[in-house]
Amino acid sequence: MDPLMKFRLAHRPYGRIGIVVLGALLALTGPSRAEDAGWPRQFDSPSGAFVIYQPQPETLVGDMLTARAAFSLQQSRDTEPLFGVLWFTETILIDRDSSSVSARHFDVTKVRLPGITPSEASRYESLVESEAANWDLSGSLEELRAGLASAEKERASVADLDTVPPRVVFAQSPAILVVYDGRPVLEPIPGAGLERVVNTPYAVVHDPSSREYFLSGANVWYEADDPLGPWSVVASPPAAVREVVPPDTSAADQIQGLPPLVLTATEPTELISTNGPPRYAPLVGDELLYVTNTESDVVREVSTQAVYILLAGRWYRAATTAGPWTFVRGDRMPASFSRIPPESPKANLLASVAGTDQADDAVADAEIPQTTAIRRGPADFTVTYDGSPDFERIPGSMLEYAVNTDAEVILADGRYYACDQGVWYIADDPEGPWQVSDTRPLGVEDIPPSCPVYNVRYVSVYDMTPDVVYVGYLPGYIGCYPYYGTVVYGTGYRYHPWRGRHRFYPRPWTWGFHPRYNPWLGRWSFGCSYGSGFLRVGFLWYSAPSVHSIHDPPHWLGPGGYRRPLLESDGTMARTRRATRAPARPDRLPMNIYRRTANVPRVDPHASRVPARRLGTPVARPERIPNNVFAGRDGKVYRREQGGWKVNRGRSWDPAPVVVQPPATPMPGAGNFGRTENIPNWPPAPPPPPPPAPHDSPQRPPQRSPASPAPAEPQRVAPPSPPPATPPPGNLEREFRGRERGASPGARVPQKEREKEQNSPQRKP
Fold first, then answer.
1. Distance (Å, rounded) from C-alpha 87 to C-alpha 360?
2. Per-residue pLDDT tens for 412-448?
3. What value, to the nearest 5°, has the Cα angle with vertex 59 and ends 57 and 60?
4. What kind and span of H or E run contains 11?
5. What's the 3-state SS for 397-426?
6. β-strands 100-112, 212-216: how paired?
7. What's the maximum distance between 2 C-alpha atoms anywhere in the chain?
């Protein structure tokens, strides 16, 4: 059982009981609240003593308030209390004449308390409800405003994910999309007399003797004179080509009927393929229609005739399928989308409509870490660079990251940190030797999503012993991010790969792989808009059984690697129905990164639980407990002492310096490359002509790839200005100050306009 688990507490048959104690979050101390008990508040029961620390509001929608609070539980059998965090919602009443607030109904939505079972969590929730029934409900409107303003500032300080639409192609016949990161780049396959295209995840092989290119499927091969097409089916490729790409005999991958059309792209693109002209069927009465002859999610709103498509968890709207497309946030979708029947073929869409139970569950899942225990000591982990280690500054921080490696290496405070498969390592030299780290770099939480190593901010160190380090990662590490009440896949940015003299290192992509969220399995799967995604992904994710195969890390899709669409036994997508049985085709990689081959020797199976945080001393009276314990958004418990911060580390309160770098800002020129174009339906008539001359001759090392139509030759990026001498406080300190003294409401920082492709972030020359 996951040691930092979330508990979805069952809906009670007799209605929702108001938890008044946490409604008392609004009853803050002040001159007009002399009778208020203040914070923290304690109540006793036969099971132990609860201490509830001052909660922190997160959102207020109408009269529904969402907040979280730190608490401790002192049980009679224990000598020290156990700390945790709970999240809740409540309905409030506001009286502006008296500047008071009352709470009516309270629902606990999540509890994070290490080492207890779900049944215990439900019991403790009921205990809080019953014990709090007679508590004072009144509160301060002024402090409510201050808490909400502080929460708004914290949300505004988070760097924006990119929502600019990719290029969207509709095809009215079965089709697949082969993506290249810019102009195709060739690299020799040692000992084979062949070349491979390295800047695509697919197995595209070039035979220099015939000047032909070959693309491998499961039971079908394609050939072309140019890697950008047009591609045509070939009965049998040369024997040398078949040798480097062994056959795939998986039944789920075999193509039945005519082979699909192959389309290509060199920029962020998504393909929506229908089997003939789109066919519509009712989805929500006479309000919504959906396209039935596609695996993609295409919905038409009847009243406006607008077309909505769901790509990587992001909604886009257009008047026709030719575009142009406009992003629509999940919390601003038409109300009719929230009425999609849960048992309909498109019930999966509910997870992308804010306010639905499915979306709330998806967001809650994205806040729960996967944890394990890693053995201390020297690590069997190495980092390979293309030349000498080359580092660039991460804007908005004092950190630097390595650009000429496929590893995620960060320079912080004169030491080197590497994050690999959800584990932090540390070394005094960028090339090692590496040790398992019991800390992560200070300031890593300020890395903006425009930086390729953004995902490492979601990997944490929770605790340590002399033998093991307890680590964990949130779903953001593998590309799943909460966003305005829903979850989305990927940051949306296009990062430049490293194209050196000897190596090509890809960066994570959001677009081109058709990611879909499965709300019943709580995971993302990827496809090619046709069948089960039969194209071979042999070179960049796993070694095929051939001496000529080359194994590279799965950086196209980040640490999560490549997972094909989940199929039911009847061949339909698992995303369209509840997971009442196991998928017929399992994932290529285990969902839990810590169970993958690279981590097997690192994990200590006998110490897999994060130890309970048992801190402090037993409490005698509530008024003797200072109100200095704070529930961080990361689920950790913090304590403020003498102007500084300490974090709950298991058996002690360790110093936790507040990050004081300026708020994270997007990397200079880190614009999104996605474009929206009016594209006619495929296939056209007559068949498309060969590509233009600039693509006739793919690049070969050691010459660097000219970017066509990708960005031009890399330019030197000027280092960012140093932070001010007196930087603004970090989020933790700012929110604490807002809770304690109030905060001036500030306008949300608007989403920055994305810059053009040629100004995107580049590595150093």
1. 12
2. 999 999 999 999 999 999 998 999 999 999 989 888 8
3. 105
4. none
5. CCCEEECCECCEEEEECCEEEEEECCEEEE
6. unpaired
7. 89
Closest CA to 764 of 717, 700, 726, 703: 717
Residues 6+ apart with CB under 8 A from 677: 167, 323, 324
Nearest to 716 by CA among 764, 667, 661, 654: 764
Which pTM was predicted? 0.62
The per-residue pLDDT for range 604-634, each reduced to its tens digit, is 766 544 443 322 222 222 344 566 776 665 5
Q: Are strands 139-140 and 100-112 parallel, antiparallel or unpaired?
A: antiparallel
Identify whether the C-beta of residue 330 lies closer than 8 Å to the C-beta of residue 316. no
Residues in the chain: 765
Residue of 61, 153, 160, 86 lying closest to 488 (CA atoms): 160
Q: How far apart are CA 687 and CA 689, in angstroms?
A: 6
**Terminus-to-terminus CA distance in the chain, angstroms?**
48
What does the domain layout of the chain look like in residue ranges? Answer: 1-156+712-756, 275-365, 370-473
Per-residue pLDDT reduced to its tens digit, 668-711: 333 333 333 333 334 334 444 444 433 444 555 443 333 333 33
CA 183 vs CA 152, 528, 705: distances in Å? 43, 20, 7
Give me the torsion for CA of 718, 724, 727, 731, rounded to 10°.
-10
